[in-house]
């Protein structure tokens, strides 16, 4: 009876963690889009707010013994912190300049770019099956972007830069976690304040400090509350990702990600009335098919690798 109650309690915690991640991951896209559309809040300043709140949240977590911080040399994570700034800022600029559908599908190009970086610079090899799944992903993104009525050069540039910097960041995060023997929260605990410092120096050069639309401009209470709420949600996204992978598996998180992908796309068209043509819908389905195929083949290869290791004498 006691074991049954413990199992039920564990399942409830996992379901609660998945729900937090689902709601926060979807909300952060819609809240940020709302901030850009209805308030015109400066992009880099919003990114800075997210970084500061993330650090404060992580500081609270380590004080509550949710994780133990590890001392890291600053010079080892400088480039990682800079790429963190770029990845969040360019991703937000892509969201600001594009429809949610194009923004979401552009993010799917991160997988092909990561594979290209790892193949070119890290001499990592991938199976032919994995490489073939990149064809429908890329084709779907191109098809959607080409037929998006809101397609524009500025949005394309931001989306491209966002994909490139995000891909670099993800590759470097994996390498640094292995090199420094830290988990994602320990690494983010040092990244967030360092990235905040970099942005603090740069923001006044690109965004007005005072006046209409400035950092210290005459913002309404509703705008400021929404911005702070956005920062809290961004922190919950990071925290719930770590919690889900730690308490379930990367497999669960990846499969759950496809569900969020679909809901975010649908929500964009419902809430912001983004037009959707038949060709765009075909592009979305093509990309989704490629993502599902990639995940399935990748997981199969991982299981085969584990089986071979287990069979070794």
TrEMBL record:
Q: Where is the Sugar phosphate transporter domain?
A: 23-294
UniProtKB keywords: Membrane, Transmembrane, Transmembrane helix
Q: Which SUPFAM superfamilies match?
A: Multidrug resistance efflux transporter EmrE
**Protein location:** Membrane
Instruction: Name the GO cellular-component terms.
Output: membrane
Tell me yes or no: is Membrane among this UniProt entry's keywords.
yes
Topological relation to the membrane, as annotated: Multi-pass membrane protein
Q: Give the transmembrane region(s).
A: 12-31, 37-56, 77-95, 153-175, 187-206, 218-244, 251-272, 278-297
Tell me which family the UniProt entry assigns to this protein: Belongs to the TPT transporter family. SLC35E subfamily.
Protein's job: Putative transporter.
Q: What is this protein called?
A: Solute carrier family 35 member E3
Which organism does this sequence originate in?
Sparus aurata
- Identify the coding gene: SLC35E3
